[in-house]
Amino acid sequence: MSRPPTPVAGPTPRRCWHWLLLAVPPVWCIGVIPLVNRVDYVLGSIPFLLVWMTLGVLIGSAALAGVYLVDRSRGDADRV
Which keywords describe this protein according to UniProt (predicted)? Predict the structure, then answer.
């Protein structure tokens, strides 16, 4: 008769490089505003800073989706 496997005390260490994607939205929206605020470009009647922040929301959503997809493919999304 074989012995059942012993449970591991915690999650197995894995590379979590994809979690670095979560640093992209704050850097995009907050870190670069001093540089973007100097741009006088206007798209139609929309200021460039508003276009920049809207793109930041889209890029932030894509970063979160990327982290979720990688976690789900590894089976980590079911653990939470």
Answer: Membrane, Transmembrane, Transmembrane helix
**Residue pLDDT, tens place only, 43-57:** 788 888 788 888 888
Confidence of residue 20 (pLDDT cuts 50, 70, 90): confident
**41: exposed, middle or buried (Cβ count in 10 Å: 0-12, 13-18, 19+):** exposed
Q: Dihedral (C-alpha) 79, 16, 69, 7: value to the nearest 10 degrees?
A: -30
